[in-house]
Design goal:
homodimer; about 45% helix; four-stranded mixed sheet; about 190 residues; Rossmann fold; alpha/beta
Protein backbone atom coordinates (compact mmCIF):
# COMPACT_ATOMS: atom_id res chain seq x y z
CA UNK A 1 0.00 0.00 0.00
CA UNK A 2 1.22 3.41 -0.96
CA UNK A 3 0.33 6.27 1.38
CA UNK A 4 0.75 9.78 0.05
CA UNK A 5 -0.44 13.18 1.13
CA UNK A 6 0.85 16.71 1.50
CA UNK A 7 3.62 17.46 3.99
CA UNK A 8 2.12 18.32 7.35
CA UNK A 9 -1.03 16.29 6.86
CA UNK A 10 0.11 13.85 9.53
CA UNK A 11 0.54 10.77 7.36
CA UNK A 12 3.69 9.72 9.21
CA UNK A 13 1.84 9.66 12.51
CA UNK A 14 -1.19 7.73 11.29
CA UNK A 15 0.97 5.19 9.43
CA UNK A 16 3.06 4.63 12.56
CA UNK A 17 -0.08 4.14 14.66
CA UNK A 18 -1.53 1.71 12.10
CA UNK A 19 1.72 -0.30 12.17
CA UNK A 20 1.66 -0.46 15.97
CA UNK A 21 -1.93 -1.69 15.93
CA UNK A 22 -1.06 -4.33 13.33
CA UNK A 23 1.55 -5.77 15.71
CA UNK A 24 4.28 -6.70 13.28
CA UNK A 25 2.02 -7.60 10.35
CA UNK A 26 2.91 -4.41 8.52
CA UNK A 27 6.38 -3.60 7.24
CA UNK A 28 6.91 0.14 6.96
CA UNK A 29 9.35 0.87 4.16
CA UNK A 30 12.17 3.29 4.99
CA UNK A 31 13.03 5.52 2.05
CA UNK A 32 16.55 6.41 1.00
CA UNK A 33 17.31 10.08 0.54
CA UNK A 34 20.20 12.36 -0.32
CA UNK A 35 18.87 15.29 1.73
CA UNK A 36 20.63 16.33 4.90
CA UNK A 37 19.31 14.84 8.15
CA UNK A 38 17.26 17.23 10.30
CA UNK A 39 17.67 17.18 14.08
CA UNK A 40 14.63 14.88 14.46
CA UNK A 41 15.93 12.40 11.87
CA UNK A 42 17.34 9.00 12.75
CA UNK A 43 19.35 6.96 10.24
CA UNK A 44 17.39 3.85 9.25
CA UNK A 45 14.24 5.03 11.00
CA UNK A 46 13.07 8.21 9.30
CA UNK A 47 15.29 7.66 6.25
CA UNK A 48 18.43 5.96 5.02
CA UNK A 49 20.74 8.90 4.41
CA UNK A 50 23.02 8.26 1.45
CA UNK A 51 25.08 10.30 -1.01
CA UNK A 52 23.95 11.27 -4.49
CA UNK A 53 26.61 8.96 -5.90
CA UNK A 54 25.25 6.04 -3.88
CA UNK A 55 21.70 6.88 -4.91
CA UNK A 56 22.58 6.99 -8.62
CA UNK A 57 24.31 3.64 -8.29
CA UNK A 58 21.16 2.13 -6.71
CA UNK A 59 19.08 3.43 -9.61
CA UNK A 60 21.51 1.90 -12.12
CA UNK A 61 21.48 -1.47 -10.32
CA UNK A 62 17.64 -1.48 -10.27
CA UNK A 63 17.74 -1.48 -6.48
CA UNK A 64 14.96 1.08 -6.00
CA UNK A 65 11.26 0.41 -6.60
CA UNK A 66 10.60 4.07 -7.33
CA UNK A 67 12.45 7.30 -6.99
CA UNK A 68 11.90 11.01 -7.49
CA UNK A 69 13.71 14.30 -7.22
CA UNK A 70 12.14 16.70 -4.77
CA UNK A 71 13.39 20.13 -3.74
CA UNK A 72 16.82 19.30 -5.20
CA UNK A 73 17.27 15.89 -3.56
CA UNK A 74 16.63 12.27 -4.43
CA UNK A 75 14.11 10.14 -2.55
CA UNK A 76 13.49 6.47 -3.28
CA UNK A 77 12.32 3.10 -1.99
CA UNK A 78 14.99 0.39 -1.62
CA UNK A 79 13.70 -2.76 -3.29
CA UNK A 80 15.08 -5.56 -1.14
CA UNK A 81 13.43 -4.87 2.24
CA UNK A 82 10.03 -4.59 0.52
CA UNK A 83 10.44 -7.87 -1.34
CA UNK A 84 11.67 -9.62 1.82
CA UNK A 85 8.64 -8.41 3.80
CA UNK A 86 6.18 -9.48 1.09
CA UNK A 87 7.80 -12.92 1.01
CA UNK A 88 7.23 -13.19 4.77
CA UNK A 89 3.53 -12.44 4.16
CA UNK A 90 3.63 -8.98 5.69
CA UNK A 91 1.72 -6.03 4.32
CA UNK A 92 4.03 -3.26 3.18
CA UNK A 93 3.35 0.45 3.43
CA UNK A 94 5.34 2.90 1.35
CA UNK A 95 4.98 6.47 2.55
CA UNK A 96 5.98 8.27 -0.63
CA UNK A 97 4.94 11.25 -2.71
CA UNK A 98 2.79 11.40 -5.81
CA UNK A 99 5.48 10.88 -8.49
CA UNK A 100 6.74 7.76 -6.74
CA UNK A 101 3.20 6.51 -6.18
CA UNK A 102 2.54 6.65 -9.92
CA UNK A 103 5.69 4.60 -10.61
CA UNK A 104 4.58 1.97 -8.10
CA UNK A 105 1.08 1.78 -9.61
CA UNK A 106 2.57 1.35 -13.07
CA UNK A 107 5.00 -1.40 -12.04
CA UNK A 108 2.76 -3.09 -9.45
CA UNK A 109 -0.88 -2.85 -10.57
CA UNK A 110 -1.98 -4.68 -7.39
CA UNK A 111 -0.65 -1.87 -5.21
CA UNK A 112 -3.32 0.05 -3.33
CA UNK A 113 -2.93 3.81 -3.41
CA UNK A 114 -4.25 5.76 -0.44
CA UNK A 115 -4.19 9.52 -0.20
CA UNK A 116 -4.26 11.16 3.22
CA UNK A 117 -6.08 14.46 2.88
CA UNK A 118 -6.30 17.29 5.41
CA UNK A 119 -9.76 18.26 6.70
CA UNK A 120 -9.16 21.61 4.95
CA UNK A 121 -6.39 23.69 3.35
CA UNK A 122 -6.37 26.02 6.35
CA UNK A 123 -5.87 23.11 8.73
CA UNK A 124 -2.95 21.86 6.60
CA UNK A 125 -1.19 25.23 6.77
CA UNK A 126 -1.73 25.35 10.53
CA UNK A 127 -0.24 21.86 11.00
CA UNK A 128 2.71 22.69 8.77
CA UNK A 129 3.51 25.82 10.80
CA UNK A 130 3.01 23.96 14.08
CA UNK A 131 5.75 21.47 13.15
CA UNK A 132 8.20 24.35 13.44
CA UNK A 133 10.82 22.48 11.42
CA UNK A 134 10.84 24.67 8.32
CA UNK A 135 11.67 28.22 7.34
CA UNK A 136 8.92 30.48 6.00
CA UNK A 137 10.33 30.02 2.50
CA UNK A 138 10.18 26.24 2.86
CA UNK A 139 6.63 26.44 4.19
CA UNK A 140 5.53 28.47 1.16
CA UNK A 141 7.25 25.94 -1.10
CA UNK A 142 5.58 23.04 0.71
CA UNK A 143 2.16 24.66 0.45
CA UNK A 144 2.67 25.01 -3.30
CA UNK A 145 3.72 21.36 -3.49
CA UNK A 146 0.66 20.46 -1.41
CA UNK A 147 -1.58 22.17 -3.97
CA UNK A 148 0.07 20.17 -6.74
CA UNK A 149 -0.30 16.96 -4.74
CA UNK A 150 -3.95 17.64 -3.90
CA UNK A 151 -4.57 18.11 -7.63
CA UNK A 152 -3.41 14.50 -8.20
CA UNK A 153 -5.74 13.07 -5.57
CA UNK A 154 -7.93 11.50 -8.23
CA UNK A 155 -5.12 9.10 -9.15
CA UNK A 156 -5.60 7.36 -5.79
CA UNK A 157 -7.82 4.38 -4.96
CA UNK A 158 -8.77 5.49 -1.46
CA UNK A 159 -8.96 8.79 0.38
CA UNK A 160 -8.53 8.99 4.14
CA UNK A 161 -9.31 12.35 5.69
CA UNK A 162 -7.09 12.90 8.71
CA UNK A 163 -9.61 14.34 11.17
CA UNK A 164 -8.16 12.36 14.05
CA UNK A 165 -5.14 10.05 13.94
CA UNK A 166 -7.15 7.34 15.73
CA UNK A 167 -9.88 7.29 13.06
CA UNK A 168 -7.43 7.72 10.16
CA UNK A 169 -5.18 4.87 11.34
CA UNK A 170 -8.24 2.60 11.64
CA UNK A 171 -9.20 3.60 8.10
CA UNK A 172 -5.80 2.45 6.81
CA UNK A 173 -6.22 -0.92 8.54
CA UNK A 174 -9.77 -1.25 7.21
CA UNK A 175 -8.52 -0.72 3.66
CA UNK A 176 -5.80 -3.35 4.09
CA UNK A 177 -8.32 -5.84 5.49
CA UNK A 178 -10.91 -5.21 2.77
CA UNK A 179 -8.31 -5.51 0.02
CA UNK A 180 -7.56 -9.04 1.23
CA UNK A 181 -11.24 -9.97 0.82
CA UNK A 182 -11.22 -8.62 -2.73
CA UNK A 183 -11.37 -11.09 -5.53
CA UNK A 184 -8.08 -11.02 -7.39
CA UNK A 185 -8.11 -11.96 -11.06
CA UNK A 186 -4.83 -13.49 -12.13
CA UNK B 1 -24.20 -4.29 -1.14
CA UNK B 2 -25.36 -7.54 -2.58
CA UNK B 3 -24.65 -10.66 -0.53
CA UNK B 4 -24.97 -14.00 -2.29
CA UNK B 5 -23.87 -17.50 -1.55
CA UNK B 6 -25.17 -21.03 -1.71
CA UNK B 7 -28.12 -22.05 0.46
CA UNK B 8 -26.89 -23.34 3.79
CA UNK B 9 -23.69 -21.29 3.79
CA UNK B 10 -25.02 -19.17 6.66
CA UNK B 11 -25.28 -15.86 4.83
CA UNK B 12 -28.56 -15.00 6.55
CA UNK B 13 -26.95 -15.35 9.96
CA UNK B 14 -23.84 -13.32 9.19
CA UNK B 15 -25.86 -10.57 7.51
CA UNK B 16 -28.16 -10.36 10.53
CA UNK B 17 -25.18 -10.14 12.90
CA UNK B 18 -23.55 -7.43 10.75
CA UNK B 19 -26.80 -5.42 10.83
CA UNK B 20 -27.01 -5.72 14.61
CA UNK B 21 -23.43 -4.53 14.97
CA UNK B 22 -24.10 -1.58 12.65
CA UNK B 23 -26.87 -0.43 15.00
CA UNK B 24 -29.42 0.81 12.50
CA UNK B 25 -26.97 2.05 9.88
CA UNK B 26 -27.73 -0.89 7.61
CA UNK B 27 -31.09 -1.52 6.01
CA UNK B 28 -31.61 -5.19 5.24
CA UNK B 29 -33.85 -5.55 2.21
CA UNK B 30 -36.72 -8.02 2.54
CA UNK B 31 -37.38 -9.86 -0.70
CA UNK B 32 -40.81 -10.58 -2.09
CA UNK B 33 -41.56 -14.16 -3.05
CA UNK B 34 -44.38 -16.29 -4.36
CA UNK B 35 -43.23 -19.44 -2.59
CA UNK B 36 -45.21 -20.85 0.31
CA UNK B 37 -44.12 -19.77 3.78
CA UNK B 38 -42.25 -22.40 5.79
CA UNK B 39 -42.91 -22.82 9.52
CA UNK B 40 -39.91 -20.61 10.38
CA UNK B 41 -40.99 -17.82 8.00
CA UNK B 42 -42.47 -14.53 9.17
CA UNK B 43 -44.26 -12.18 6.78
CA UNK B 44 -42.23 -9.00 6.32
CA UNK B 45 -39.22 -10.43 8.14
CA UNK B 46 -37.95 -13.41 6.16
CA UNK B 47 -39.95 -12.46 3.04
CA UNK B 48 -42.97 -10.58 1.80
CA UNK B 49 -45.25 -13.39 0.68
CA UNK B 50 -47.33 -12.39 -2.33
CA UNK B 51 -49.21 -14.10 -5.16
CA UNK B 52 -47.82 -14.67 -8.64
CA UNK B 53 -50.37 -12.18 -9.94
CA UNK B 54 -49.15 -9.52 -7.50
CA UNK B 55 -45.54 -10.29 -8.38
CA UNK B 56 -46.15 -9.95 -12.13
CA UNK B 57 -47.90 -6.65 -11.52
CA UNK B 58 -44.85 -5.36 -9.55
CA UNK B 59 -42.57 -6.34 -12.44
CA UNK B 60 -44.83 -4.49 -14.92
CA UNK B 61 -44.90 -1.37 -12.74
CA UNK B 62 -41.07 -1.41 -12.40
CA UNK B 63 -41.45 -1.84 -8.66
CA UNK B 64 -38.70 -4.48 -8.29
CA UNK B 65 -34.97 -3.77 -8.54
CA UNK B 66 -34.27 -7.33 -9.64
CA UNK B 67 -36.15 -10.58 -9.82
CA UNK B 68 -35.57 -14.20 -10.72
CA UNK B 69 -37.41 -17.46 -10.96
CA UNK B 70 -36.01 -20.16 -8.70
CA UNK B 71 -37.38 -23.67 -8.17
CA UNK B 72 -40.69 -22.64 -9.77
CA UNK B 73 -41.25 -19.44 -7.78
CA UNK B 74 -40.54 -15.75 -8.19
CA UNK B 75 -38.14 -13.89 -5.89
CA UNK B 76 -37.45 -10.17 -6.13
CA UNK B 77 -36.37 -6.99 -4.35
CA UNK B 78 -39.05 -4.31 -3.86
CA UNK B 79 -37.63 -1.00 -5.05
CA UNK B 80 -39.17 1.54 -2.68
CA UNK B 81 -37.75 0.41 0.71
CA UNK B 82 -34.25 0.31 -0.78
CA UNK B 83 -34.52 3.80 -2.26
CA UNK B 84 -35.98 5.17 0.98
CA UNK B 85 -33.09 3.70 3.02
CA UNK B 86 -30.43 5.06 0.64
CA UNK B 87 -32.06 8.50 0.85
CA UNK B 88 -31.76 8.31 4.64
CA UNK B 89 -28.03 7.61 4.22
CA UNK B 90 -28.22 3.99 5.31
CA UNK B 91 -26.23 1.20 3.74
CA UNK B 92 -28.46 -1.38 2.11
CA UNK B 93 -27.80 -5.11 1.98
CA UNK B 94 -29.65 -7.28 -0.53
CA UNK B 95 -29.37 -10.95 0.28
CA UNK B 96 -30.14 -12.36 -3.17
CA UNK B 97 -28.97 -15.08 -5.53
CA UNK B 98 -26.59 -14.87 -8.45
CA UNK B 99 -29.07 -14.01 -11.23
CA UNK B 100 -30.46 -11.12 -9.20
CA UNK B 101 -26.96 -9.97 -8.26
CA UNK B 102 -26.03 -9.68 -11.93
CA UNK B 103 -29.13 -7.53 -12.60
CA UNK B 104 -28.20 -5.24 -9.72
CA UNK B 105 -24.60 -4.89 -10.94
CA UNK B 106 -25.84 -4.05 -14.43
CA UNK B 107 -28.33 -1.42 -13.25
CA UNK B 108 -26.28 -0.05 -10.33
CA UNK B 109 -22.56 -0.21 -11.20
CA UNK B 110 -21.71 1.22 -7.75
CA UNK B 111 -23.20 -1.82 -6.03
CA UNK B 112 -20.67 -3.96 -4.20
CA UNK B 113 -21.04 -7.70 -4.76
CA UNK B 114 -19.94 -9.98 -1.95
CA UNK B 115 -20.01 -13.76 -2.17
CA UNK B 116 -20.20 -15.80 1.03
CA UNK B 117 -18.36 -19.05 0.43
CA UNK B 118 -18.32 -22.15 2.61
CA UNK B 119 -14.97 -23.30 4.02
CA UNK B 120 -15.45 -26.42 1.85
CA UNK B 121 -18.10 -28.25 -0.19
CA UNK B 122 -18.34 -30.95 2.50
CA UNK B 123 -19.00 -28.33 5.18
CA UNK B 124 -21.75 -26.80 3.01
CA UNK B 125 -23.53 -30.13 2.64
CA UNK B 126 -23.28 -30.71 6.38
CA UNK B 127 -24.78 -27.29 7.16
CA UNK B 128 -27.57 -27.83 4.64
CA UNK B 129 -28.51 -31.16 6.21
CA UNK B 130 -28.26 -29.72 9.72
CA UNK B 131 -30.89 -27.11 8.89
CA UNK B 132 -33.37 -29.98 8.66
CA UNK B 133 -35.85 -27.87 6.70
CA UNK B 134 -35.66 -29.65 3.36
CA UNK B 135 -36.42 -33.07 1.90
CA UNK B 136 -33.58 -35.18 0.50
CA UNK B 137 -34.75 -34.27 -3.01
CA UNK B 138 -34.61 -30.57 -2.18
CA UNK B 139 -31.15 -30.96 -0.63
CA UNK B 140 -29.84 -32.63 -3.78
CA UNK B 141 -31.40 -29.83 -5.85
CA UNK B 142 -29.86 -27.17 -3.58
CA UNK B 143 -26.42 -28.78 -3.79
CA UNK B 144 -26.68 -28.69 -7.58
CA UNK B 145 -27.69 -25.02 -7.42
CA UNK B 146 -24.79 -24.41 -5.03
CA UNK B 147 -22.37 -25.81 -7.58
CA UNK B 148 -23.83 -23.49 -10.22
CA UNK B 149 -23.57 -20.55 -7.83
CA UNK B 150 -19.99 -21.37 -6.82
CA UNK B 151 -19.11 -21.40 -10.52
CA UNK B 152 -20.21 -17.73 -10.73
CA UNK B 153 -18.08 -16.65 -7.78
CA UNK B 154 -15.70 -14.78 -10.09
CA UNK B 155 -18.45 -12.26 -10.92
CA UNK B 156 -18.20 -10.94 -7.35
CA UNK B 157 -16.05 -8.11 -6.00
CA UNK B 158 -15.36 -9.64 -2.59
CA UNK B 159 -15.30 -13.14 -1.16
CA UNK B 160 -16.01 -13.79 2.50
CA UNK B 161 -15.34 -17.32 3.69
CA UNK B 162 -17.76 -18.20 6.47
CA UNK B 163 -15.43 -19.94 8.90
CA UNK B 164 -17.09 -18.31 11.89
CA UNK B 165 -20.07 -15.96 11.85
CA UNK B 166 -18.19 -13.51 14.09
CA UNK B 167 -15.28 -13.17 11.64
CA UNK B 168 -17.52 -13.22 8.55
CA UNK B 169 -19.85 -10.51 9.89
CA UNK B 170 -16.81 -8.33 10.68
CA UNK B 171 -15.60 -8.90 7.12
CA UNK B 172 -18.91 -7.59 5.72
CA UNK B 173 -18.63 -4.45 7.87
CA UNK B 174 -14.98 -3.98 6.86
CA UNK B 175 -15.97 -4.09 3.20
CA UNK B 176 -18.73 -1.51 3.72
CA UNK B 177 -16.31 0.79 5.58
CA UNK B 178 -13.54 0.47 3.01
CA UNK B 179 -15.95 1.10 0.13
CA UNK B 180 -16.79 4.47 1.69
CA UNK B 181 -13.10 5.42 1.65
CA UNK B 182 -12.85 4.51 -2.00
CA UNK B 183 -12.52 7.30 -4.48
CA UNK B 184 -15.69 7.45 -6.57
CA UNK B 185 -15.39 8.76 -10.10
CA UNK B 186 -18.61 10.37 -11.21
Amino acid sequence: MVVSGPAGVGKGTIVKLACQKAQGNIHLSVSATTRNPRPIDKEGVTYHFITKKEFRSMIEQNEVLEWAEYVGNYYGTPRKPVEDALKKGQDVILEIEVQGAMQIKKNFPDAVLTFVAPPSREELERRLRDRGTETEEQIVSRLQTAEEELSRINEYDYIVVNDTIEKASEDLLTILRAEKLKQKFE
